[in-house]
Amino acid sequence: MTAPAPVVRKGRKGAGLTLRDVARLAGVAPITASRALNTPDAVSETVLKKVREAVERTGYVPNLLAGGLASKKSRLVAAVVPTIVGPIFLETVQSLTEALADAGYQLMLGQSGYENSREDALLEAIIGRRPDGVVLTGIMRSAESRKRLLASGIPVVETWDLTPTPIDMLVGFSHERIGVAVAQHLHAAGRRRVAVIAGVDERSRRRARAFSDEAVRLGMAVAGRKEVPQCMVPAPTTLGSGRTGLADLLGQDGAIDGVFCSSDILAMGVMIEAQVRGVAIPSQLAVMGFGDLSFSRDLHPQLTTVRIDGTGIGKTAARFIIERAEGREVPERVQDIGFTIIERQSV
Amino acid sequence: MTAPAPVVRKGRKGAGLTLRDVARLAGVAPITASRALNTPDAVSETVLKKVREAVERTGYVPNLLAGGLASKKSRLVAAVVPTIVGPIFLETVQSLTEALADAGYQLMLGQSGYENSREDALLEAIIGRRPDGVVLTGIMRSAESRKRLLASGIPVVETWDLTPTPIDMLVGFSHERIGVAVAQHLHAAGRRRVAVIAGVDERSRRRARAFSDEAVRLGMAVAGRKEVPQCMVPAPTTLGSGRTGLADLLGQDGAIDGVFCSSDILAMGVMIEAQVRGVAIPSQLAVMGFGDLSFSRDLHPQLTTVRIDGTGIGKTAARFIIERAEGREVPERVQDIGFTIIERQSV
DNA sequence: ATGAAAGCGCTAACAG
DNA sequence: CTGTTAGCGCTTTCAT
User: Does a structural domain hold residue B344?
Assistant: First the structure.
């Protein structure tokens, strides 16, 4: 048997280049080169230098697919959002991406859409990549999906909600408590007839319901009524929905002096419509939003709203996943990150 | 030698399950099972049914890492944005994710930040995954990065800009032409003293410069001046920047009757500040934005702005990448998607 | 239409 | 500290 012909080197530098090539250039075994790259402390100064030189010269970039397959660590984390349009989850995705990148992990983004149909295909695509973790914004709806995720054994962090039965880990807050707190805030500010405008997504609805219940309890509904005036608008919410929402509410019986909007965008629409109609804020109408988007403080009047620490959620979720990926346990798997009512001028 | 002990099956269903297990269950060779899954047309009805049954029963999900390694097709596409916060690129990322998902590709999201420092590490992480394509929003700045990308041989689509020397493929529009068109629009509307508020990012700056030059040419600057009043604000732009921007401009010498804002957010801030100061829009001041964000049509007055088909950009970029991934050539590698001036009430 | 063998590029496990 | 060996789970190539 003759020795095999030397492997034909591809023309492009960096393409088709493997660890073997680098190792050969550095005069060491592939595994040694691997160690020089991944656990530099485990090799001698000399070897380290030679390998780094070889990498530098060739422009070698390790194949993470191969590495992931061999080590069963993909350094990939999947994030699922209903939709990326709509600024609510943005802050979370942003900080998640950053926190992960800092630790050498990449983010894979999936949009589940607001219907269930895509969820299954998406889940399959995710599990197929064997990510080191999955971050869910909002709760996975279909029980089937939840089961598959659980079965896959991949660390999961649910966010932006609290649930009695988390799949695995969770960092969120109570939408019910927000509804209650907002009603109380409005009541404390002297408002006596309130209404709510909410997008038809499940969490908004829960905030609205809790708000309505508490408002009724505090006597802020028309006597005898079991709920306050509501206006449901399509998700994702828009400025336009806020405008028509207020118009709708104003058209209903009974004057209102306060309105809770399920998003800051909606609240801004309400403010614009109020201005157009000559309804003074806050004297005639108090407005509260949800989300504390960056523009809210710059409105006129400044918007009183509920702040969620989206960045904190992202960071914590990243930490949870990374802890698990490195084989450590996460002692407090459920974290209530709470919320803050930001008092500004619109109430 | 004795036969090795049977492999211990992991407890969790779906975990550690391989194609071999499925094949065994279906009574075929692994490769046949593989074909049943990937190229169903290449196997008999009988085999197809048996394999599908086995998959169903076991909850098997193919390991895409292994598949990608063997086939050199990762079905992964990387997208790089400066930051995901800031609604400009959202539409593009959204449609990109969807179009890719429909074709069985996943999106990996990277944020380069507005400085160059992270770009290199990010690029390494991206190339390491051997994606089937990379979509860049805005141009990669460092020449080093561009070179590495080119060397990697990965299909690249640059977006949101036009450049004489694209790395590979490109779908964008001319920021210069937008500046010119906006100046002309304002001029045609009878404005004679215009100004510009722009974020300090490179593309905004180019729009602003082209706008200024054209405005000067049309005689919309103070006689003898070589540029119109400008106010540069930090990127990403905010409502607050728009408000202070207008205040700044109003404080400068010479009354203005029109202002071009480098983003709709900025324009909205201008409108709020104008309202607070009792400056009537459009009669006293015409306002134009850029981006046509969803809220722009719902403002009062409705915002006249420049619309970019972000969804179209995402779709086209996805198509380009997919074409290449499937081995086809893309004949028109540079596509100017243009822009539209949306005439509403603020001019 | 189906299968056997080989290997993608890397790392775990075990030597030395 | 360094190297050898043996896969990770899949697909390619080449037979049958």
Answer: no
Residue A29 falls inside a structural domain: no
**Strands, E assignment, A138-212:** 156-159, 169-172, 194-199
The token pair that represents B284 in the structure block:
């006293």
Give pLDDT tens digits for A74-105.
Answer: 999 999 998 888 788 999 999 999 999 999 99
Q: How far is the CA of A158 from the C1' of D6 (A)?
A: 39
Contact B65 A129 (CB under 8 A): yes
Query: Parallel, antiparallel, or unpaired for β A305-307 and A340-342?
Result: antiparallel
CA-CA distance, B49 to B40, in Å (whole number)?
10
> Is the pLDDT confidence value at A11 over 80?
no
Nearest to B133 by CA among B329, B328, B327, B325: B325
Does an H or E element contain B252, and which? Answer: none
For chain B, how long is the longest CA-to-CA vector? 98
Where residue B256 falls (left for φ over 0; alpha for ψ -120 to 50; beta otherwise) is: beta
| A chain contacts of residue B270, beta-carbon cutoff 8 Å | none
Whether B137 and B80 have beta carbons less than 8 Å apart is answered as: yes
Q: Is A22 within the bounds of a domain?
A: no
3-state secondary structure of A130: coil
Whichever domain contains B228, its CATH number is 3.40.50.2300
Residues ≥6 apart with Cβ < 8 Å to A138? A81, A82, A158, A159, A160, A161, A202, A203
**A261-298: per-residue pLDDT in tens?**
999 999 999 999 999 999 999 999 999 999 999 999 99
- B51 CA to chain A: closest CA distance, Å? 17
Q: What domain range includes position A187? A: 175-307
Q: Does A38 touch chain B (CB under 8 A)?
A: no
Q: What angle do CA A293, A297, A298 make, to 5 degrees?
A: 110
Contact A238 B294 (CB under 8 A): yes
**Mean pLDDT within A205-225:** 96
Angle B95-B99-B105 from CA coordinates, rounded to 5°: 125
Is A112 among the domain residues?
A: yes
Q: Using CB atoms within 10 A of its CB, is residue A6 exposed (0-12), middle (13-18) or buried (19+)?
A: exposed
Classify residue B296 by its DSSP letter. Answer: G
- How many domains in chain B? 2
Q: Are A337 and A162 in contact (CB under 8 A)?
A: no
Q: What's the pLDDT tens digit per position in A16-65?
A: 899 999 999 999 999 999 999 999 999 999 999 999 999 999 999 999 99
Please, are residues A298 and A268 in contact by the beta-carbon 8 Å criterion? no
- Give the C-alpha separation, B132 to A250, whole Å: 54
Contacts of A121 in chain B (CB under 8 A): 101
Residues B302 and B180 both lie in one domain: yes
Burial of A301 (0-12, 13-18, 19+ CB in 10 A): middle
In B, minimum Cα distance to A78 occurs at: B108
